[in-house]
């Protein structure tokens, strides 16, 4: 892998080597469109909403109680409640200067809770509490440090080293002293500190943080954690990282660990470790990932299921697993340059990360099911909600990792759009944006991206500033265009078909040059591998990168989505306002509730005819559940009953 | 409902009124065939196997430890371990005289553990233990009494009142004193005592047992139990029995309660209560029952799922729920005479109750899944097993309710075959049997049934003794013959087509007369209601009352069942040894493991062709997993991919 010499310091992920060089938040700016609106809502609504809830539920107060010596009786929330404060601090740091006062205030709350040796956790270690590190399986102490360190790195990179960064450094030094060679031979039940320590090593140049991260990665999989009810696979302590063939156990833990392993592999030049994670990513994407990019099909332990066990109605697809999957794919993209990682990140951003927050940014999905059978109840506006219980988003959860994870992801999103290398600039995600960087040889380049993506498929890149030397503009042609035709129009107006992967234009660009990518976003039927038992006999609709769904609020007469049947022999078509109209009908009369027995010999009379044959309105999956309680399904039964067709 | 004047006392269920009068174990004898072989194994292997395990795991020893004052430190097993002893005692009582010595020995173990006031439970109430009735939600004290009382009734009816019956009476008197009017206003977290108390009232003529049972039924659903993690529906305390529309919560609890409610309704003439249970049975059978008759689709809380949520791979379908379902259907059949209850009992007996024990009667399924994806490990021969973990039956479980429930059901099975009424005799289940009873007017009748059922569909009833007066022989024509033709041949050799329901021959039968029922047992494809999402695009095969399955041990080259695809446009045919050969193939080459992404646009190339087009061997579901670890599926994917067909 090549050495990176990043031009920017405002980087969420800054590997010292790799195929691609990331661009910083001072080099890429999102100016509007799909993600621009969501980032605005995040900055102006979500972050404040989360800070308010942190006070309301007492999790911010935990730091005060710790500093004031009354935490043993006053602590609120779960073991990992501290981490939500750190994730919010990270979000505010990346989001820009508007949060300076909140960052300072929150830092002032956190700081006095740190103990003289750097230890910082409000759930353990003080009189009347469990001892430090007495419950590595469930205690989340190292996990919390991970988020603290990420917040510290964000502050340093975005605003210069301040108090928060110092707190994080002290905590990291404490971790190295306590868990380094000769110290506690343990790992945290919830991986996260691995990737954080590598980033701190990158930010500070201190090797010992990288060494400690590498030690944590290597230690895992040797059964140092207890064999819990869910088995050691739950926290990936069942086998060494470099021996595993697929991600397993708790999805967020597995993905955070994999991200940390890539970071370690890149910094140490460990090709074997990198290859192991690539192999796990491939197997997980091929066999354990929902159409939305969502990961995790078990509610009980928030874990991956077995290969091809992807029931839409039991999809857990935790928002945090979506965030973690984007983190992993981004690191693999930087290391390898392979556009397949950007493909998965795109799918996950549009269909998991964008699905979690409500339109107003003040309510969230924790789990992102692909089939909701019951409208359920409305989550309380003034109390925490359980996970995955309602058809509507909830303002806060008893375990509320997802809102703050969405906040920090949207805040750093511009950094995921583009990269550079010796040859030029690569665009990976499409959004209205302005990009300015310096290529090798001190050649300044500025670009402006304009697109109606994902509603439309036209992406125009206008060169604002360029050098006289030729360079290459690379544009990802998404894998979802497979079987259709994408076009690239170069600055001379020459139009050529391009295949999924990467389309390139190399020339001495001049100011005003335009390159246009035309992606075919007509809605298409999607079928699943026959081994995915749970969606057999159904089809889904994808339009561009967006997965679509039927939602009961769009059906006539108060019908529920289980009456929907579609006819994949005809084509779905664009409807108004980003809807799709799928050929199909509602099969209600053919399915009387009074049937005595739900099974019948196939040689008996077929089901009676259906009604409402005028087509089914589908909406983007990310937009569902913004119009009151509803039922919803992504995978739509087809009109052809089994054995009636050939 | 009419008054019953039972001619026999050897009756597991002896309602004082109802449409049909049950025949006792002294009136119906199974002489061979499918159930004869299983009853022989039960008597000669299973009962002894269970007694041995009860000693081995220390559950028998609990009674000794209680009597000797050391139970607080020596108790073994779960709260309800006592009940397994009672279920074995019941099994031995119904099974016949061969177990006299074991009954006496086991009774001698139990008796000294009973306290002077009748209280009897080894988990509660003694020094160092939790107080009596301090945990009605989970304590199972009344549940254990229920099984004790059923054992006592069995002993009284089969052998005359003995020591066991006296213990049970004392316990029942204690229950009435403790939970009667003015006593504890509670119910047991696990219903069971309701049906037991009614049977004790029937056996003794004591009204107070019936009153107490009615009180328990009426009390439930008013939230006297705590609101646990699974909700009060778990133990049916969410709404009054007579208001519920469908069975819900823990399947065994729901079914035992419903059985007890029918008993109370019949004895008290409460038509409203009976109608409520009929309504719940109808809704449950129409929307919450597997093709096998199995009930319960949640592993976590062993409960019913929502309507039409019947995933084959997550089928819990507990053996005990099958037993309880047969108990409920039998009570409803006696009360109403409607053959649909015998239809469900038949389905459940052949496909759940007969599936649980291994061929040698020394290992059991606790859960009866309809799809097993992994061969799994071999259960230990000398240790208890977890539930639902292996593809093989296990010798004993940490919670081992199922083996003893199978034992008592097989022991009393002859009583489920036939009934009488004022007009004659009704045959509900078909097995080689001898039946002798006295009809109204002191007319002795004897019948001999010969059949190869369920392998074949021919049932011959030969009259051995009859009176000169005409009477009616009724034969159930199973609902599964719908769409095919069943024939009845009368003693004159006249052959007529008969429809599902009841076929009758009325005449003054003479000795030697034969009536023959010819049922069409050719294998047939079965499809499911389209609302059962989890089996869309698949078909099953049923042959007579037997559900069939594909098992990996019958596939070539070590293939697993997920490669199986069948073609329902052709017909399945009989193979040798009760197998069926289904038209189909193995689709292995079309599903490479290396696929990068398991979803594809339907307008892209279809899946490659399959191999092994010579047909798929299917075996009766009840017989699977007797040939080593295997994978298995009941619902078979069809060869027609979605959207490729019309």
3D architecture notes:
2 copies of one chain form a homodimer. By secondary structure, the first copy, chain A, is of the alpha+beta class. Chain A has helices at residues 33-56, 59-67, 71-74, 81-95, 100-110, 141-159, 163-179, 193-204, 207-219, 251-268, 271-287, 319-336, 339-353, 401-412; strands at 21-22, 28-30, 371-372, 418-421, 424-427, 433-439, 443-451, 458-465, 471-477, 486-489, 495-498, 501-507, 514-518, 524-528, 538-543, 546-551, 564-566, 573-574, 580-582, 584-586, 599-601, 616-620, 632-633, 636-637. In chain A, strands 3, 14, 15, 16, 18, 19, 22, 23 and 24 form a 9-stranded antiparallel β-sheet that branches. In chain A, a hairpin with a 5-residue loop joins strand 10 and strand 11 (495-498). Chain A is globular and about 75 Å long. Mean pLDDT of chain A is 94; it is low at 589-593 and 642-646.
**Shape of chain A, please?**
globular
Euclidean distance between termini CA atoms of chain A: 54 Å
Whole-angstrom Rg of chain A: 25 Å
Estimate what percentage of residues of chain A fall within beta strands.
15-25%
Mean pLDDT of chain A: 94
Number of strands of chain A: 24
Stretches with pLDDT under 50, minimum 5 residues of chain A: 589-593, 642-646
Helix content of chain A: 25-40%
Biggest chain-to-chain interface with counts = A-B, 66 and 67 residues
The computed structural class of chain A is alpha+beta
* Biggest sheet character of chain A: 9 strands, antiparallel
Number of helices of chain A: 14
Oligomeric status:
homodimer
């Amino acid at each position: 892998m090549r050495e990176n010499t990043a031009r920017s310091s405002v980087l969420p992920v800054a590997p010292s080597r790799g195929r691609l060089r990331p661009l910083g938040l001072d080099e890429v700016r999102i100016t509007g469109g799909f993600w621009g609106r969501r980032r605005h809502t995040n900055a102006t609504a979500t972050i404040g909403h989360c800070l308010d809830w942190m006070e309301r539920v007492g999790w911010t107060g935990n730091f005060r109680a710790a500093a004031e010596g009354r935490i043993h009786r006053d602590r609120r929330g779960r073991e990992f409640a501290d981490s939500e404060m750190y994730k919010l601090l990270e979000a505010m740091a990346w989001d820009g200067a508007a949060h300076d006062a909140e960052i300072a205030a929150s830092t002032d709350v956190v700081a006095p809770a740190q103990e003289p040796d750097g230890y910082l956790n409000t759930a353990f270690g003080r009189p009347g509490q469990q001892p430090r590190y007495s419950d590595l399986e469930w205690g989340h102490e190292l996990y919390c440090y991970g988020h603290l360190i990420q917040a510290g790195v964000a502050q340093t990179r975005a605003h210069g080293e301040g108090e928060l960064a110092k707190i994080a450094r002290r905590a990291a030094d404490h971790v190295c002293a306590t868990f380094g060679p000769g110290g506690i031979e343990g790992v945290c039940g919830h991986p996260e500190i691995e990737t954080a320590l590598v980033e701190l090593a990158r930010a500070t140049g201190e090797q010992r943080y990288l060494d400690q991260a590498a030690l944590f990665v290597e230690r895992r999989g040797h059964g140092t954690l207890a064999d819990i009810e869910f088995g050691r696979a739950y926290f990936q302590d069942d086998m060494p990282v470099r021996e595993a063939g697929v991600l397993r156990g708790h999805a967020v833990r597995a993905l955070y660990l994999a991200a940390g392993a890539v970071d370690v592999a890149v910094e140490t030049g460990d090709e074997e470790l990198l290859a192991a994670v690539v192999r796990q990513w491939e197997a997980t994407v091929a066999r354990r990932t929902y159409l939305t990019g969502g990961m995790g099909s078990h509610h009980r332990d928030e874990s991956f299921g077995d290969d091809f066990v992807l029931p839409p109605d039991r999809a857990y697809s935790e928002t945090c697993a979506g965030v973690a999957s984007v983190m992993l794919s981004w690191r693999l993209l930087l290391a390898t340059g392979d556009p397949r990682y950007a493909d998965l990140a795109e799918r996950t951003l549009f269909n998991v990360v964008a699905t979690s927050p409500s339109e107003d940014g003040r309510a969230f999905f924790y789990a992102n099911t692909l089939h909701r059978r019951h409208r359920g109840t409305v989550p309380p506006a003034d109390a925490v909600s359980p996970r995955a219980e309602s058809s509507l988003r909830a303002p806060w959860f008893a375990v509320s990792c997802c809102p703050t994870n969405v906040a920090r992801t949207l805040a750093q999103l511009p950094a995921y759009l583009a990269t550079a290398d010796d040859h030029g600039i690569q665009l990976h995600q499409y959004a209205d944006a302005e990009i300015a960087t310096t290529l090798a040889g001190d050649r300044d380049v500025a670009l402006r991206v304009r697109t109606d993506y994902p509603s439309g498929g036209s992406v125009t890149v206008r060169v604002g500033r360029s050098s006289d030397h030729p360079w290459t503009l690379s544009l990802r042609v998404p894998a979802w265009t497979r079987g259709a035709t994408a076009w690239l129009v170069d600055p001379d107006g020459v139009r050529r078909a391009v295949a999924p992967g990467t389309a390139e234009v190399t020339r001495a660009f001049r100011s005003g040059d335009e390159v246009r990518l035309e992606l075919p976003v007509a809605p298409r039927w999607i079928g699943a591998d026959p081994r995915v038992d749970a969606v057999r006999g159904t089809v889904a609709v994808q339009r561009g990168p967006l997965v679509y769904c039927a939602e009961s609020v769009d059906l006539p007469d108060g019908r529920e989505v289980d009456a929907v049947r579609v006819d994949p022999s005809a084509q779905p078509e664009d409807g108004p306002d980003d809807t799709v109209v799928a050929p199909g009908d509602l099969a209600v009369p053919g399915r009387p509730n009074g049937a005595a027995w739900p099974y019948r010999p196939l040689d008996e009379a077929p089901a009676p005819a259906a009604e409402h044959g005028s087509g089914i309105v589908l909406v983007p999956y990310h937009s569902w559940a913004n119009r009151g309680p509803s039922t919803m399904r992504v995978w739509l039964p087809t009109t052809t009953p089994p054995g009636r067709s050939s």
